Amino acid sequence: MKTPLAFALAAVVLAALAAAPLFIPDYWTGVLLGMTGYVALATAWALFSGPTRYVSLATVAFFGVGAYTVAVLNEVLPYPLVLLCAGGIGAAMALVVGLSTLRLAGVYFVIFTFGLAELVRQTVSWWEVNVTYTMGRYVFLPFEGRHIYWQLLALAAVTLLISWAIGRSRLGLALKAIGDDETVAAHAGINVTRIKLMLFVISATLITLVGAIQAPRWTYIEPSIVFNPTVSFMTLIMALLGGAMRLWGPLVGAVPLFLLFEWLSVSFPDHFSIILGLLFILIVFVMPQGVLAKLEDLRGRGKP
Amino acid sequence: MSAELHLSHLHKRFGGLVAVRDVSFSLAPGEVVGLLGPNGSGKTTVMNMISGALPCDGGSVKVGTTDITRMKPHRVAKHGVARTFQLVRPLPTLTVGENVMLSLAFGKKRHWGREARDLAEEKLAFVGLEGRGGEQVGNLTYIDQKRMEMARALASEPDILLLDEWLAGLNPSELSIGIELVRHLQGQGITVLLVEHIMEAVRALCSRCIVMSAGEVIAEGPSAEVLARPAVIKAYLGDDHA
Amino acid sequence: MLEHVVNGLVLGGTYALVAMGLTIQYGIARIMNLSFGDTIIAACFATWLMFTGLALSPILALVVLVPAGYALSLVVYRFIMKPLVDRAPDEGALEVDSILVTFGLLFVIQGVLLTLFGGGYTSYSYLNSPVNVLGTTVAANRLLALALSLAIGAALVVVLFRTRWGMTLRAVALAPQSAPLYGIDTNRAARTAFAIGGALACTGGVVLSMFQTFTATGGVVFTMKALIVVILGGKGSVPGAIVAGLLLGLVETFVAAYIDPGLTLAAVYTVFLALLLVRPNGLFGKA
């Protein structure tokens, strides 16, 4: 498809999605909201982890920091400034994590991100109990579901746009090369550490913003609510199902899985995490490269 | 203008083992020089120290007047040094053309877009892979992978090219193609350091040779003369042949 | 002061023990097992069940659960890990695949534990009588835990470094490509290593449950600590795991005693980062 045509089509779809809350019941706006949130999360996650193959298990650490920043600052600062602060804190945290682990082999990064959410959750709890003497905070912002939805939709579109732009730039080429062979990439003139760090910070900042925008949904926030490890897990599984190496992959994975999870969590609230885990193992087994690659594979085999 | 390469008193230890001891030599602009020696004599270690893949424990590496001793590989590449690897290392998720474009995009001049595509095609044509930029790397034959790796190295527009056993593993007819290619490089004014075991190639290409054994330079001079020295024959074949 | 040293050593001994399991799984079977901590928690609950339900002492639980952990790990390896090992084109691909699959497994085990036992903190009282050690009092169960950790850890070190079988395993850890040339069955070594790791996780769980409270969702933290111990000690190094485990136990106990119990994980992370910056290959790792 020609690029201008694809853009026109994307704009039409986006407009239709933006208009949807005016015509559908509130419940479905809520579903759309959650789904859009995960599309943004999975796409932002894949931005860094897809091409470099550095599996980040810390999605919820950034997501939670975003939400919690809003909880702390929503009565102190005007909303746009609160979002700016959240993004800044997320970026700074990503910079520290990245600087300390991205120079080393990929496995150190995975291990570090694995416990990061728990670390941040415990540290925030400790701070609240011992320093500010508050546990749990209220978010009073004049937003209804659709307002949050529109913000998330805009963020998801921006995330996809960033992902598209990077994929076409020399940065995208460099990332793929780094995922294949860091030594060769470095000898071709690529500053491997700097590029990894840059992408990780961009990805983490977007994830932080998703958390910040969603914060008003909860009204009441405490660390155990916003640092729920299931968020990291669902993001990962969605991106993998769709294919983390492709622009549309995370979206293709996020939409059906979100609907499935929504149904599962209502139908089997007690066994949700077991089903989630089994599904995840199945996906790793059957579609290591994601649905899109699988489809291409099948189409390729269909040809003589 | 092509810069020359100076190594002085290069030193490298791995734990208790001294892999490279006090190695010094220079390459003049446009020269093709062979770096020889039996397995384990430290040739590849020297290559890795020049390209920045390994830090030096002592000594210095200069390109022209620039000291590149402590530079990381990506900065060394920007100073006009490119290399190939002992075992060919293609990037499998990139196409043949993208493999080459990578060095164009991040090399000395940072080409991108249409210009980079044209230049990549030009480099591919130079190594004999004309019009094959769209292919998957995994579908290339061994010699074609080696050609692609050469095109990738050339795409960073180097003054100095390090070839680490680039001709190894080729059959006789491929070998003569390979030798021709390296000879073409010389015509372009690129300085080449060639680590090689195939004497036929060394005699055909290198005006001068440096021979290493057990981490030290044991001989240096015009190829024919150096290869006839008893010390060199001894290092390669053992005492009986000296 | 001395009390904290003893408590730190007890905790550290357990960390060292479970980290040995993880380092063996990672070093020999090349599987980075993120569900390791949940295996430990499962063993804690099993011990608790035997103790409160059947009035069996934890020592007896050890006799039952350790072989069970070994056998179950063999099954997991056969049906989940082996297909991944077979399809992985290189070590990096296996690392990523194993991280993903065990991440899924983590949620399965955690989900089962939550369904069976709920999310509350659980503990039982076994040998809770005070004993006088060098002038301070320590609970008897802690001393027993330390003794068990040391005995089992030492036995493992002897097996790994003094027997032919141990040498086979170490050979696979050092040179997976060349080990088959010496007639070593690397598949079998990997399977065995994974199972030993599982057995050690169960041992750790039984020992830990004697003196600590545990919860179904606590596995992540144990995996994290075991991983940190493995990294600090140097990948695949058993002596490294022991030293790093003891160190971590001491750091945690002292931070909890003198600063704040809520900051132990933060302290652990700080130690991890500080050491990574100074020695990227761990205390006993090779460059």
Quick overview:
With 304 residues, chain A is an all-alpha fold. Chain A is 78% helix and 1% strand. Chain A has one domain (3-302): ABC transporter involved in vitamin B12 uptake, BtuC.
Q: From the 3D structure, determine the CATH topology of chain A.
A: ABC transporter involved in vitamin B12 uptake, BtuC
| Mean pLDDT over the full residue set of chain C | 86
Radius of gyration of chain C: 18 Å
Count the helices of chain C. How many? 10
What is the 3D form of chain A? globular
- Rounded to the nearest angstrom, the distance between the terminal CA atoms of chain C is 37 Å
- Which range does the strand content of chain C fall in? under 5%
Would you tell me which CATH topology of chain C applies? ABC transporter involved in vitamin B12 uptake, BtuC
Name of the CATH architecture of chain A: Orthogonal Bundle
The CATH C-level class name of chain A: Mainly Alpha
State the name of the first-level CATH class of chain C: Mainly Alpha
Number of domains of chain A: 1
Counted by DSSP, the helix tally of chain A is 14
Order of helices and strands of chain C: HHHHEEHHHHHH
Average pLDDT level of chain A:
88
Record the SSE blueprint:
The complex is a heterotrimer of chains A (304), B (242) and C (287).
Chain A: H1 3-19, H2 26-52, H3 59-73, H4 79-101, H5 106-132, E1 137-138, H6 145-168, H7 170-180, H8 182-187, H9 192-214, E2 220-221, H10 223-226, H11 230-242, H12 249-267, H13 272-286, H14 291-302
Antiparallel strand pairs in A: 1-2
Helix pairs in contact in A: 2-6, 2-9, 2-11, 2-12, 3-4, 3-5, 3-9, 3-11, 4-9, 6-7, 6-9, 11-12, 11-13
Chain B: E1 5-14, E2 17-27, E3 32-36, H1 43-51, E4 58-63, E5 66-67, H2 73-78, E6 81-83, H3 96-106, H4 114-127, H5 142-155, E7 160-164, H6 172-187, E8 191-195, H7 199-205, E9 208-213, E10 216-222, H8 223-228, H9 230-237
Parallel strand pairs in B: 3-8, 3-9, 6-7, 7-8
Antiparallel strand pairs in B: 1-2, 1-4, 4-5, 9-10
Chain C: H1 2-28, H2 36-54, H3 58-87, H4 91-117, E1 130-133, E2 136-139, H5 140-162, H6 164-174, H7 186-209, H8 219-233, H9 238-258, H10 264-278
Antiparallel strand pairs in C: 1-2
